[in-house]
């Protein structure tokens, strides 16, 4: 009997619908070629729902997510005015305690990267830090944001990162700014050092965030697993994505103890909405991570191989990779490869 999964699909805003449809097309190809049944449950979330629901994450969508095994999420536009709804992605991460944001960055075949041998994963704490959402004006011209760092959340993400390092090259780098943020990064660093005691086979070192920004350009191939707090992780994972070729290739998993949400690292790129020109690979690699999370290793390997082959052949390439193919041509090529494997 076919193994069945319920998968929530939140298309998001801007280029979100195009890239999530591309990823669903690849999942349908997986379904057609394996003994898997995927029930897609479509939900509303993002900027476009605010006029109708008064929020970017309606309760009906939260209820839908609770019924599913995992979620594919397109990027969503986040309004920047004070008082506007906070990011739907941040809300989902907190609501489901998806404490580890896992963002692999590696050199791909036939893609211009700073080096051809980059293979690192940024593991970003995903529920607190500068994203705690506690920010206010103290007096005219003076405002404060709370960078909340707890031992509990830091330990959870550190443990996740060590377990990942154990499955990889057994090297973990923790990134911080404890020379300035002594109290908050003190808590984070202590949690990492405590977790290190449970994983003596992993080599550990640490780098300040400003130095890390430089090292990612200078010697990115020397890193394996990088673990850090929320904002630092957001910034360096975008940097690492560009160092390996394009933000259009970088996928992210948001992992908790009982749920996972999978999305591209990039945002909703509103200026490209509906143009069928952006690279869908980041979202396709996000669903590859979802299949791996669901324990469907063969399906995950098939998607990865299909992406690698399409990139290696170089016949179908979106504009960010120096080609002229459309979003749908790229996803058709990857879906066809999945069927051929
Ligand atoms: P962005 O990632 O949307 O776009 C920055 C640039 O990256 C684009 O102009 C484009 O040149 C390139 N790019 C992004 N995706 C690409 C793709 N698939 N293929 C090729 N090139 C691609 O970042 P932004 O402009 O800072 O943010 C736009 C909106 O997205 C904002 O409202 C922001 O809050 C939101 N955002 C959402 C998420 C999320 O939902 N998780 C993440 C980041 C940003």
Secondary structure layout plus pairing:
Blueprint: E1 3-10, H1 16-33, E2 36-43, H2 50-53, H3 59-66, E3 70-73, H4 88-95, E4 100-106, E5 119-125, E6 135-139, E7 142-145, H5 151-167, E8 171-176, H6 182-196, E9 203-208, H7 209-218, E10 225-228, H8 230-243, E11 251-255, E12 260-264, H9 281-293, H10 297-313, H11 327-340
Parallel strand pairs: 1-2, 1-3, 3-12, 5-10, 8-9, 8-10
Antiparallel strand pairs: 4-5, 4-11, 6-7, 11-12
The protein binds nicotinamide-adenine-dinucleotide.
What's the gist of this structure?
The chain has 341 residues and is α/β, with parallel strands linked by helices. It is built from 11 helices and 12 strands.
Features:
single chain, 341 residues, alpha/beta, Isopropylmalate Dehydrogenase, 10-stranded mixed beta sheet, two-stranded antiparallel sheet, 20% strand, globular, binds nicotinamide-adenine-dinucleotide
Please characterize this protein's 3D structure.
The protein is α/β, with parallel strands linked by helices and 341 residues long. It folds into two domains: 1-96 and 256-341, 3-Layer(aba) Sandwich (Isopropylmalate Dehydrogenase), CATH 3.40.718; 114-243, 3-Layer(aba) Sandwich (Isopropylmalate Dehydrogenase). The chain has helices spanning 16-33, 50-53, 59-66, 88-95, 151-167, 182-196, 209-218, 230-243, 281-293, 297-313, 327-340; strands spanning 3-10, 36-43, 70-73, 100-106, 119-125, 135-139, 142-145, 171-176, 203-208, 225-228, 251-255, 260-264. The strands form two sheets. The chain has a ten-stranded mixed beta sheet with strand order 2-1-3-12-11-4-5-10-8-9, with helices on both faces. Bound molecules: nicotinamide-adenine-dinucleotide (NAD). The site of nicotinamide-adenine-dinucleotide has 18 residues, from loops.
